[in-house]
Amino acid sequence: MKVLVIGSGGREHALAWRLSQSSRVQRVYVAPGNGGTALDSLLDTVPYGSLEELADFAQREDIGITVVGPEAPLAAGVVDLFRSRGLKIFGPTKAAAQLESSKDYAKAFMMRHKIPTARYQTFTDPIQAHAYIDQEGAPIVIKADGLAAGKGVVVAMTLDDAHAAVDAMLGDGSLGAAGARVVIEEFLTGEEASFIVMSDGRNVLALATSQDHKRLRDGDAGPNTGGMGAYSPAPIVTPELHHRILKEVILPTVNGMAADGIVYTGFLYAGLMIGPGEDATRALKTLEFNCRMGDPETQPIMMRVKSDLLDAIEHALSGTLDKADIVWDRRTALGVVMAAHNYPGTPRSGDAITGLPAAAEDCMVFHAGTKLENGVVRTCGGRVLCVTALGDSVRMAQDRVYKTVSAIMFDGAQYRRDIGWRALKPSQQRK
Ligand code: AMP
Ligand code: GLY
């Protein structure tokens, strides 16, 4: 079978790489792909203009299954389009993708279906928004309603920062239409975890748990980014919490969508805040939904898949996910993002990358913002690479990753040196 993966990030490189190992997959196309998918002899890179063009390509090439990586094509209705042409595609419809494409929709949905989340109100009028902030006090969180490529959330520690965020979004239109409506919500504390499942609309199959590092610098300092590294599993998600997350968040979401007349198919990602205390009673709240897998969480998750991923996706497309299973490598997988100069601001492009190792069973370099130019791999985006390794412990995975990272060179490279620190015992943490 021929498979098409839509997207250009590290997540898509990892998905395509894993799918290319299925004995039933003859060819994997990645559209538009990146320097890494162009280098890989098992993958083909497909440039495209419009989603219609991509559907034409899928029909012409007789693509058996399409898997969608990022949120933008989902929110634009790529699943609806492919299905209308009789093409099999794994992802949520445009209506279902609103769980990510509108924070206001997601919050109202969670209220309606009693899914635990932070208290909130939605505003389009800046005067009312400012008044609400004064009434609630700081810290407080301001979120653009629409898709803002990871730049739509301001965790304001002071009233000044909160008012400035409202002025930027509702007043100056800094995020365009995405910020013309804002959700203002209660500040939550605790530890975050990413919980990702596959859904066929009725049944869900949980993927391995993971944890992301959103801040740019070591010790979770500096500005928010799309994610500077991740690892799997996340030890905070014990079997008891796993059960609670399915029961309190995931199943009510899939069932709630169905009750609202929307069948949710595809990956579903719940970003969770887990409060302190005993597992049976600790606070468990949903920070956000994504209608796709996480980036960089996908990279370590894909490293741990031991069975045929295509089987699970086929079950999801047939409505038989209850019969599917994924066998996970027991080892820890850990991925470190190497970002370009000036990320998360406007990143510099064009720096030549050297020292890329050959693929290995226990260490892969997934590409994101790279391009292949006359045989040279160059930076062309904010998050450039995600070096991902397996190890018998978090520490061993870290050692393997950082050994590879230190051999890879490009001007202006930035990366965190402490990915995985929460999963280490205090005595093992790097100083
Ligand atoms: P989101 O895109 O909604 O996940 O927000 C991005 C990041 O902002 C999250 O990963 C959290 O670190 C932080 N965040 C979002 N909502 C809250 C909240 N209510 N309280 C504290 N931190 C939050
Ligand atoms: N790593 C967070 C996300 O993909 O949204």
Can you offer a commentary on this structure?
This protein has helices at 10-20, 35-39, 51-60, 71-75, 78-84, 98-101, 103-112, 126-136, 159-171, 239-259, 298-303, 309-318, 394-407, and strands spanning 2-7, 27-32, 43-45, 65-68, 89-90, 120-123, 140-144, 153-156, 182-186, 191-200, 204-206, 211-212, 215-217, 221-224, 229-232, 265-274, 284-290, 332-339, 363-367, 370-373, 376-379, 383-391. With 431 residues, the chain is α+β, with helices and mostly antiparallel strands. It has 4 domains: 2-92, Rossmann fold (3-Layer(aba) Sandwich), CATH 3.40.50; 125-180, Dna Ligase, domain 1 (2-Layer Sandwich), CATH 3.30.1490; 191-323, 2-Layer Sandwich (D-amino Acid Aminotransferase, Chain A, domain 1), CATH 3.30.470.20; 332-428, Glycinamide Ribonucleotide Synthetase, Chain A, domain 4 (Alpha-Beta Complex). It has a 5-stranded parallel β-sheet. Strands 12-15-18-22-19 form a 5-stranded antiparallel β-sheet. The chain is globular, with a radius of gyration of 21 Å. The chain starts with a strand and ends in a 24-residue tail after the last helix. 48% of the residues are buried. Adenosine monophosphate (AMP) binds next to strand 7, strand 8, strand 9 and strand 17.
Q: What's the layout of helices and strands?
A:
Layout: E1 2-7, H1 10-20, E2 27-32, H2 35-39, E3 43-45, H3 51-60, E4 65-68, H4 71-75, H5 78-84, E5 89-90, H6 98-101, H7 103-112, E6 120-123, H8 126-136, E7 140-144, E8 153-156, H9 159-171, E9 182-186, E10 191-200, E11 204-206, E12 211-212, E13 215-217, E14 221-224, E15 229-232, H10 239-259, E16 265-274, E17 284-290, H11 298-303, H12 309-318, E18 332-339, E19 363-367, E20 370-373, E21 376-379, E22 383-391, H13 394-407
Parallel strand pairs: 1-2, 1-4, 2-3, 4-5
Antiparallel strand pairs: 6-9, 7-8, 7-9, 10-11, 10-16, 12-15, 13-14, 15-18, 16-17, 18-22, 19-22, 20-21
Helix pairs in contact: 8-9
The structure holds adenosine monophosphate and glycine.
Adenosine monophosphate binds next to strand 7, strand 8, strand 9 and strand 17.
